Amino acid sequence: MTTTRPVSGWVEINIDLKGRSMLRTSRSSLVAVLCSGGLLVAGSTSASASVPSLATQLDQILAGSGATAMSVRVDVAGVGTVFTHSAGQALNPASTEKLLTGYTALRVLGPGHRFVTRIGSTVAADPHGVIHGRLVLTAAGDPTLSTTGGLAELARQLHARGIRKITGGILLDDSLFSRVRVAPHGTTSLDAGDPGPLSAFAVNDNSWRLDRGYRDNPSIGNLQALQRVLAKAGIVVQGHLSVGRPAKAPRPLASTSSRPLSTIVHDMLKQSINFYAETLLEDIGAARTGGSQAGGVKAIRAEAAKLGVRLGGNMVDGSGLSTDDRQSADGEVSWLEAAHADRVLGPQFLAGLPIGCVDGTLKHRMCGTGGLVHAKTGTLDGMRALSGYVTDAAGHLVTFAFLLAGPKSTGHAASNAIDAAVRVLAVSRL
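^ that's the sequence the OP posted. Answer follows.
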């Protein structure tokens, strides 16, 4: 049963499907929607359906998803919210949580920020290139540092300075981050998608070793990796490898910079890189309150408050892997709209979102929507999500969030339902 009633210059269509959906639009837009959708208009406030309305189509599609709980919201620029389904209900967002981490990183650190890892020494080298003291490595929370990249560059610079031997070992100052080394979802093995142990001095995504000792604290293991890279470059390191803060500032010897943050966020969103997300969360915290996951979450909530966005759910990590994470469609759509309204950072944030049938985690999805979908996927056992933007047939920006929860066996059906719903939005004319 479909009913309509005028509300202060608007017409509100209530579709009697257990109170699940609402299409609210202006009178002029309503006439266009009804005509283009094949609905017969009798006067300005009554209609009889010969073709399902947008809300009915979305309800029917989502009913076939197999989901037992969902939080959905769809907004159209210039119109407002056109469809909701328990939009205030907070569900596990899966990797759509990275939308919060990525945009906040751009806001707090700046798109041009580079993570600079530095090496210095406690004493100067003698004429023979021997440092009779310690090297000091100051970690910067670079999630992209690797043995063949940044560490090799540090070794090259040291060798170019004529340094050939260190007798006092290496001291690692990784105090930028807290001493909590494992992501809060508490996994105990490096399964696919696991962000692994966390640290301000990360090497090769902290995933090059699988033993428990390394996972509990990767610092010494990563120093051993640096020691091997130095040896390969012709620099011998003798003495202990240790972690702590130097008594005084070391003499600078070498440094290596990451790519710009905008590029790192781009890759994190496109490929849904969990390790980048978890490390960036601590980087955000370090820039504001302290390098910890709790500090990063606090900074994200502070940015949301500045944007006027109410994040009503629970956030414990940066990647969305935790089963304790909760976000609502209301919160995610509001966040996306605030990001899109940002004329400086908005385009860089948008550029990182996967494009339907083009790249990233949507490369093989949303084909047939003309490449107009820019959205972040979310996939966990019993959870499928997609939040982002699509341009409709009238050229309007549509912002959406679909969070669907259900049995593991319904995952494929849920993803198909979300894709079908976005295709409907792409061809709509609101």
